[in-house]
Amino acid sequence: MILQIDAGNSRIKWRVLDGTAAVFQGNQPTASVLAGEPLRLPAVAGLRLAQLSSVAGDTVVANLSRQLREQYRIDLHVAKVSAQVGAVSCGYSVPEKLGVDRWMAVLAVFQKTGRASVVVDAGSAVTIDLITEDGVHHGGYIVPGIKLLQQSLWKGTDQVKVDQLACTNMLGPGVSTDEAVTRGCTLMLVALIERLAAEHSADLIITGGDALLLKPQLATQVDYYADLVLDGLSVEGVSYGLGAD
């Protein structure tokens, strides 16, 4: 049994693999682990390895490492960005500066498709990475996600308040402040994604917490994968270090 963890800025996702099949999975707010709560794992017999992709900071890594040593007597293996994994080369001049979640997603996409791709991870921030059919990562783009765009309006105005996202047709003008903000923020991201997909004539792949909100709005063919970052942890050749508590 292998435990794989994706610690993002807002949420932590995890799954337990038996071979290639996920037998348990779950998620919880990253803030809960930052506050010292354990990862909410079931009793898993035979857990032999734990792998982590984290952009959530050292405290999360330390807390997870401590829990796994105490609960399962295993070390936490923390994924790192490297210059090359198999046929895939990192586009950053200093690979360590690339977010490990982006690297895991790129590796997973290339393993799945072996094609030129625009890889979109729609989370708290939206990251967009470009990879060629030869496995050359050309870097990418980072912009605020939908909720961060909304929050910028909350902080900058007295009257614009939006409580939730709505997955509807975003092309029609909003007839309430909620609709106007949600549709405007969503279409800003849609326009960026569609422009890059057209510019690079590549497959469009999307993942992340807001992926299913964005996907229906895109006018181009897009493939959705729920767990690209976790999938990247399984790619042969990924570099790992040991988490410390």
TrEMBL record:
Which residues bind ATP per the record?
D6, A7, G8, N9, S10, R11, I12, K13, S124
**From the Swiss-Prot or TrEMBL record, what is one GO molecular function term?**
metal ion binding
Cofactor field:
NH4(+); K(+)
Which residues are annotated as active site? Answer: D101 (proton acceptor)
Organism's domain of life?
Bacteria
Question: Which UniProt keywords are listed?
Answer: ATP-binding, Coenzyme A biosynthesis, Cytoplasm, Kinase, Metal-binding, Nucleotide-binding, Potassium, Transferase
Q: Where in the cell is it found?
A: Cytoplasm
Q: Which GO terms describe its cellular component?
A: cytoplasm
Give the Gene3D superfamilies listed for this entry: 3.30.420.40
Recorded catalytic reaction(s): these are: (R)-pantothenate + ATP = (R)-4'-phosphopantothenate + ADP + H(+)
As to how many cofactors bind and how, the note says:
A monovalent cation. Ammonium or potassium.
Residues at which K(+) binds: D121
Q: What is its EC number?
A: 2.7.1.33
Which pathway or pathways does this protein act in?
Cofactor biosynthesis; coenzyme A biosynthesis; CoA from (R)-pantothenate: step 1/5
* Ligand binding (substrate): Y92, G99, V100, D101, R102, T177
One biological process term in Gene Ontology: coenzyme A biosynthetic process
Q: What family does the Swiss-Prot or TrEMBL record give for this protein?
A: Belongs to the type III pantothenate kinase family.
User: What function does the entry list?
Assistant: Catalyzes the phosphorylation of pantothenate (Pan), the first step in CoA biosynthesis.
Assembly and oligomerization: Homodimer.
What is the official name of this protein in its record? Type III pantothenate kinase
Classification lineage: Bacteria, Pseudomonadati, Pseudomonadota, Gammaproteobacteria, Cellvibrionales
Which gene is transcribed and translated to give this protein? coaX
